[in-house]
Amino acid sequence: MKKKTGNLISSISISLVFSLVVCMPSHATVYFSFDAESSSVGSTLPQASNGVYFEFSTAGSPGTIRNSPLVAKQGSKYFGWNIAANQHDAQSDVRDRSKMPFNAVLGNTYYLAYYFNYTEINGVEVYRTNINAQECFDKGVELVGSGLRWNAATGSRWEEMRLLPHEWSIFIGNSTYHLNPQLEQYDYFLNNRNNYNLNNWPKIQAGRWHSVVMAIKMAQDNTGSVKLYLNGVLIAEYINIKTVATGVTPTIDHITMNGTVCQPHYNTSAHIKNYDAMILTDNLQDILNGGYLSVGSIPTGTSPSPPIGLRVVAGQ
Prior knowledge:
mainly beta; 8-stranded antiparallel sheet; globular
């Protein structure tokens, strides 16, 4: 692996401002939504024949509805998985069978948004394996389909992150199709907005709630874009790129959660992955301004035209 030099990262602010440009399709659709409030505490995640379906890939990995020991980010319940040490490829393919798969419309932007909280067990770190010398990460949450795979990976990918104990980061990738090899760093993209870069990464701390929004404008030519927001801050944006493969009708089939845990050749600690209020939509307003993810509102006096400012408080 090619080496680069870097400096110590600065920590991100607790109070952050979310600035987004609204892309309003003529016929807005929510393709997937799941809020733990709709299920009973202790129950396994749903497997509806014509609705929300969590397909578990690994024995012992089915997630459950919970209301403790964490305080839910939204409502009183959340959902999660206990990930055992050395349990690799523990994942769940998630879809709404009544709406997915569906053809992705070229030119449309699709938004995948969720809260997550990765919790350490007995203080043993989620990702750390001599973290400043080795990569240790998993595929996080992915949007997957025909000609399409974008994921928000979590952990440590680059030695230059210079992470401290109990810290890690997040980054976006298109690791199957390699549609923009000139921009990829080991098949992922460097964070490049709001002063985040190879030498300055947003820090994530275990045991706290964080919000993620991944926005993908579908294009088989160089008119697409991808954006990644963490706790209301745009940390990565690439425009004028390809986002789906050519020669196929692009589809969105499912969302993959958790993915490979820390890559198969690394030993990992047991930890817990919790989520709350996940949505896939082609309408940004389903997320903002009192929408499905109730993370804030448009401040008084703010113009309704883009960009919209949304105050998000992280780490709660």
